[in-house]
Design goal:
This protein has 149 residues and is of the alpha/beta class. The protein is 29% helix and 26% strand. A five-stranded mixed beta sheet has the order 2-1-5-6-7, with helices on both faces. Strands 3-4 form a two-stranded antiparallel ribbon. The two termini are 27 Å apart.
């Protein structure tokens, strides 16, 4: 997790400053952090691109959609470099979102370690349980950041 904290300093969206490290057998395979797609402007340069999502129960949440999630960037990096992720562990700042959870499942990762909980992470938690992926939290608090709602 200390490596993930260092990688988070490269994040270009200050909402969450998320990052991840994927390792196997005590060997770091790839890292990822929150940032815009290659060649696109970053939140640090032009501001956030916010979208409001209305959930099934009627509550809304705000999300910056300018950036690619840390987990997605790490998985893309592994694909680009030809690094297999089967049976690896992903270390991240907070519970991966639903889309990242699906990618983690399909990559064959066997464990996810999170610093804290994401405020809408219950669906991902259930998906990991169903897929047999071990999910551990180092803390029980919910990650809080600006304009979260």
């Amino acid at each position: 997790m200390e490596v993930a904290e260092a990688v988070a300093k490269r994040a270009t969206c200050d909402r969450g400053k998320s990052s991840c490290v994927i390792a196997r057998d005590r060997q770091i395979l790839v890292t990822g952090y929150v940032g815009s797609p290659k060649g696109f402007p970053h939140c640090d340069e032009v501001g956030h691109l916010m979208k409001t999502v209305t959930h099934e129960d009627g509550h809304t949440s705000n999300h910056c959609v300018r950036t690619v999630h840390a987990e997605q960037n790490a998985i893309c990096q592994a694909a680009k470099l030809g690094v297999p992720l089967d049976k690896a562990t992903l270390y991240c700042r907070m519970t991966p979102c639903r889309t990242c959870a699906m990618m983690i499942i399909n990559c064959g990762l066997e464990r996810v370690v999170c610093q804290s909980r994401y405020h809408t992470g219950q669906e991902s938690e259930e998906m990991f349980k169903q897929a047999g992926i071990k999910l551990d939290y180092l803390g029980g608090e919910v990650e809080a950041y600006a304009n979260q709602a």
